[in-house]
Design brief:
The chain is an all-alpha fold. The chain has 5 helices and no strands. The radius of gyration is 18 Å and the shape is globular.
Length: 143
């Protein structure tokens, strides 16, 4: 096994775990609250609050994809989509006055914000799934 492939394996495992952590934490806390109280509550903003883990994982998975030359286009495409989505969302929140509490949140604004967070979470999961596929492919490769 070459040093390059060993590094790629380590990066893809660490990156996939870090990328999926925000979504797993959101689902885990929701499940814990459901079991303990019997009511379903989900903190849909938790993946954004744990974005440092997600962004770190994305960078590691991108690095591993360049080392292994696998899944580069879909992973980079999802990462660019995340950057555009979160940038547009921040711009919208600032321009609508929601970020500075200048305007009252309407159902449309709240729905748009929740929609952004759902798509962000799905893109994190997509990068995590590509990371899992890349790890499987890396461990099956014969040197």
């Amino acid at each position: 096994m070459t040093q390059k492939m060993l590094i790629a394996k380590i990066l893809v495992i660490a990156g996939t775990l870090l990328t999926l952590f925000p979504v797993v934490a959101m689902l885990g806390t929701s499940l814990f609250h459901l079991i303990s109280t019997g009511t379903f509550l989900m903190d849909y903003l938790l993946p954004a609050e744990l974005a440092l883990f997600g962004f770190s994982g994305i960078l590691l998975v991108i690095w591993a994809s360049f080392l292994s030359r696998d899944f580069q286009k879909p992973i980079i495409g999802c990462a660019i989509a995340i950057a555009i989505l979160l940038g547009a969302g921040l711009l919208y929140v600032q321009l609508s006055g929601l970020g500075s509490s200048e305007s009252d949140p309407t159902p449309l604004v709240i729905g748009f914000a929740i929609g952004i967070m759902v798509v962000y979470s799905l893109l994190l999961v997509a990068i995590g799934v590509f990371g899992i596929f890349m790890a499987i492919r890396l461990f099956k490769k014969k040197e």
